[in-house]
Design a protein that fits this description.
The structure is a single chain. This protein has 162 residues and is an all-alpha fold. It has one domain. Helices cover 85% and strands 0% of the residues. The chain is built from seven helices and no strands.
Length: 162
């Protein structure tokens, strides 16, 4: 699973090459954040057995399963209103759930990280700061997703009327 998540860096090359039409900076932040959570938190053996980690991976995969078919159809110039609606409507609540499970995962990992890093007090505080940044970033992302949803669905409706 770790290797697959690290391969998600290829998404950045797809955007840079123009294969996928998306903004590079938000995707870079998303890929980096997932990989950091994977390396720093989920790699702890005590955390791997927690149910929230299973839910986290499930949500990450569902989000990708909603995004990739839509992007594939767009790349082939065969857009589907069903895929468009699904991608931009279901993605929002699933993203919120994903962020919540990620926060719970990090929070549950704090005692184990404190025990491992008894001499280094910085990492638990960094993770607590990360939780604050995660909440702020998720709020901005949800706002952006709502704007994107409105834009794409209005664009589709205008195209359909012509």
């Amino acid at each position: 699973m770790s290797l697959c998540q690290l391969l998600s860096i290829l998404e950045l090359f797809h955007i840079a090459d123009g294969i996928e039409k998306a903004r590079l900076l938000p995707r870079f932040i998303q890929v980096t954040e997932k990989n950091l959570v994977m390396i720093m938190v989920i790699m702890l053996e005590e955390i791997q057995s927690k149910p929230v980690v299973c839910v986290q991976f499930f949500l990450w995969n569902i989000l990708d399963l909603l995004r990739y078919p839509h992007e594939l159809l767009r790349a082939m110039d065969k857009p589907s209103i069903t895929m468009l609606w699904t991608r931009y409507t279901l993605w929002i609540p699933l993203y919120i759930l994903s962020v919540a499970t990620e926060a719970v995962t990090v929070y549950q990992a704090l005692p184990y990280i404190e025990a491992l890093n008894a001499t280094h007090i910085h990492l638990p505080f960094i993770l607590l700061g990360y939780l604050s940044v995660l909440a702020l970033g998720a709020s901005v992302t949800v706002w952006q997703l709502l704007k994107e949803r409105q834009h794409h669905l209005e664009k589709w409706n205008k195209k359909k009327r012509k």
